[in-house]
Every structure is written in structure tokens, then in C-alpha cells.
Amino acid sequence: MRTRGLWLLAILCAMLPLSGCWDAEELNRRAVVAGIGIDLSPDKKEYRVSYQVIIADEISGKTGRGGTPTMVYSAQGRSIMEATRKVSMLVPRLVSTAHARIVVISEELARQGISDIVDFLDRDSDIRLTAKIFVAKNGARAHDILSGLSAMGKITAYTLAQKTEMTSKEYGANYPVEIDDVIRDILVPNSGPIINGVDILGNVEDVRKQSNLEKTDALGILRMSNIAVFRGARLKGWLTEDESVGLLWVKGKLNKTSIVITPEEQGEITLDVRRSKTSTQVLLKDPEHPVVLVKVTAQLSVREMDSTIDLRDPATLNELEVYVNKEIRKKMKAVVDKAQSLNSDIFCFGQTLERQHPQKWKSLKGQWNELFPKLAVEYHVDSIVRNSQMRDRSFKYDLNKE
């Protein structure tokens, strides 16, 4: 009996240091945030922070009143945290950012610099560093992006995050960029992060109206846009669509894309990239003038033909591969030229040099700011046309033969 009492006393003593969540808050007293938007205030002196809050009653569909599934609340402050606290004047619940999937920054603010914003996102214990980050383009505010409604997916912030992943897999002009990626790229000397752009296709006012969801051709749609190039923490320029695809080729992040070639007097041929691999090597033939060698191997299939060429002929396939190589090389060269004109090593060629030739990097590190804009880059592309889907020759081949 005495032994049992001692065991009970030991268990009670062990339980004393244990405690529950000291800041626990019931779910029905929380405002769950799906997305965060950061703009400059109209007077350009303060931040305007917007939160896309999920309306749980509308999401469940049981007790909904037919309203919008999300609501956007905004407040201004000298700092992001001050603006966040001011949101409590509008929202009757505790603002919870633990489930925020996206962060949108206005282009105007990005050109001034995002170092303060990134510090806040990194410092906050609730916001996840895996949240996707975007720059609002073409005059759209971050508030406008969060206010948009989407027919496919009730929560716009989650839908936008899914669009990034889908276009990365299918087209290759964007790829998911997270807060953690931005922090690491800012820390790279003479480099900067690359962030996906997002804009509104159509009317800015209509995209936020619920009536926009009642039409088969929506008057306003949130659209993935081209990629923003930063130097340090400041936005310096935008890539074109072809340059964005070229960026993914160089960085080895391309999954799938389509390539349209026009062999001389033979019509247009569209090929689908099924697999690709990129490797980067720094050559030191002249130690003071390194050369970057980008090698790409790609496997493709013919998907569409406005041509009468004979795909059964191996020589014809070899000719197609030559045109494909030129097209891939053209896109990679275009994005490298753009980055060099902005003097931002978004490809981290400097890090590649440091990794492959650490001793030489010590002497060139201080000169990289002057070396990168003039850096020689060579492109070796080896593409292979593996198949032509369900048929080889087009039916147009037989028509032309007759």
C-alpha cells in the first residue's frame, strides 16, 4: 500500500511541470487567414496589410447564407505588426495566420524593397515559411488579388497556390517560390530572389463580385504572370514569358512545356517536353575570365503538326531536333542576357563557381559584381524526339501525296 502511494505521488509530481497551451483559443474565436496582402497606403507613408479570412459557415455549406466564402479585412500602420493589431478593430475574432498559404506584395512596394517584409515573415512564429509568395503586377494591388473570387475552389488564396504548382508542372513559365526561398536568395552576394507575378485578367472590380461566379465566361480572373527579378531585396525588372521558360531551363526546374518550331517551308510543328535535365559547370581556361557551361538534355514527343513531313524518316527527326535545340538555346540566352543587364545573378553562377573552384572564388568574389554582367555563357543542348503519340505521318501527308 505504501509503495502504491509513493508511485501515485511520483506521478503527481511529474505532472506538475506539464501544462497545456498557454495561449489556446477555441476555433470559433479565431479568424483563420488564407492569404496575406501587403501594399503601400495611399499616402505612401505606411503599410496597408490585408487578410483574406475564411468564412467557415459558407465553406461548410450547411449554415451558409449565400455569401462569399472569404472576406478581406485591411488596416494601415507604420509597421506590418501595427497594421495587424489594428485589424482587431474590424474583426471580432483573433486573427490566426498559421494556415496562410500565400503572401502577395504590390509591385510598387517591391520596387522600394521587401527586406522589412521578409524580416516580419521570418520572425513571426505563426506564418509558415512554406507559404507561396507573389508580386501583384500591372497596377493591381495585393488587396485586389486577395479580394478576387474563383469559381474552381472556394478559397482564392488556396486556388492561387494550386495554380502555381499546376502551371509549373504543365507549362514551365513559373514554379513555386516560398518565403524560405526568398530569404536564401537575398543572402546570396550579387544575386536576388525571383518571385512569381500575379495579375487580373479582365475587370478589377468584377473579379471580387459574387456575380462573377455566375457566368461561364468570368469577367475577371486571377492569372499567373511572368517572373519578377530582384537584386538584393529590390525589384529590378520583369521577365517575358519566353524568358521565364528559359529561366526554368537554366535552373533545371522545368518539368513540362511545349515548343513550337517552324522548319523552313514545312509548316509549324509543336512538340511536348516530357523530360529534361540541366547541369551547370564553370570552366577556368582563363582563370580571370571564367566561362559557364549550361548543358541541357531533353526528351520530346510530337503533339501537333501543320506539316506534311515524313516522321518515319530518321533524317527528318534529326532535323527537328536541330530546330528544337536552337529554340531552347534561344530562350536560355534571352534570360541570361536579361539577368546580366539587371546585374542580378539569379542563376547563382557565383555559388556554382564557389562550389566547383573554392580557391579561385576567394579571389573573384570581390569582383563578381563587375564580372557577372560580362560573363561568358555557353549552351549545349541535346534533344531527342522519342515518339509522335498515336500516329507518325499526318493524314495531310497522304493528301499531299495524292
Automatic annotation (TrEMBL):
<dbReference type="Pfam" id="PF25198">
    <property type="entry name" value="Spore_GerAC_N"/>
</dbReference>
<keyword id="KW-0472">Membrane</keyword>
<feature type="domain" description="Spore germination protein N-terminal">
    <location>
        <begin position="23"/>
        <end position="198"/>
    </location>
</feature>
<keyword id="KW-0732">Signal</keyword>
<dbReference type="InterPro" id="IPR038501">
    <property type="entry name" value="Spore_GerAC_C_sf"/>
</dbReference>
<feature type="domain" description="Spore germination GerAC-like C-terminal">
    <location>
        <begin position="226"/>
        <end position="388"/>
    </location>
</feature>
<keyword id="KW-0564">Palmitate</keyword>
<dbReference type="Pfam" id="PF05504">
    <property type="entry name" value="Spore_GerAC"/>
</dbReference>
<dbReference type="InterPro" id="IPR057336">
    <property type="entry name" value="GerAC_N"/>
</dbReference>
<dbReference type="GO" id="GO:0009847">
    <property type="term" value="P:spore germination"/>
</dbReference>
<comment type="similarity">
    <text>Belongs to the GerABKC lipoprotein family.</text>
</comment>
<dbReference type="InterPro" id="IPR046953">
    <property type="entry name" value="Spore_GerAC-like_C"/>
</dbReference>
<dbReference type="InterPro" id="IPR008844">
    <property type="entry name" value="Spore_GerAC-like"/>
</dbReference>
<keyword id="KW-0309">Germination</keyword>
<dbReference type="GO" id="GO:0016020">
    <property type="term" value="C:membrane"/>
</dbReference>
<feature type="signal peptide">
    <location>
        <begin position="1"/>
        <end position="24"/>
    </location>
</feature>
<protein>
    <submittedName>
        <fullName>Ger(X)C family spore germination protein</fullName>
    </submittedName>
</protein>
<keyword id="KW-0449">Lipoprotein</keyword>
